Each structure stands twice: as C-alpha cells, then as structure tokens.
Amino acid sequence: MRHRLNEADVADYILDYHNGDAKAAIKAMQDEIEHLQHQLSLAVVAMGRGYTRGWAPGETRDGQ
C-alpha cells in the first residue's frame, strides 16, 4: 500500500525540489497540469462513449 503524504509535506517537497523558488515550483506545476489536460483530451478522443457508459470528463472539478 502506498503511503499518502499530507498537503504540507507535498508542498515542502515541491519547494525543496525547486530550491525554495516558489515561482519555479508554480511554473512546473502549471506545465504538469497542461500536460495532464492534454493527455486527458487524447484519452477522451480515443475512448468510445460505450466504454464509459456515457460519462465524459468535464472541465470543472465537479464534472459539470
């Protein structure tokens, strides 16, 4: 089973990874978000509606 870190630990890890540079950390996270959004877009195009029983990911957190 994978150990889940709390949010403060994750934030500290990200900042440490970027040598305390908050702007670099935010930029890296924005780049990662854009990459994941692109990957999700590709997956949506590739999977059929029947496979997901009509569900499709939304652009907002609540899926609407």
UniProtKB/TrEMBL annotation:
Domain of life of the source: Bacteria
Name of the protein described by the UniProt record: Dehydrogenase
Organism: Agrobacterium bohemicum
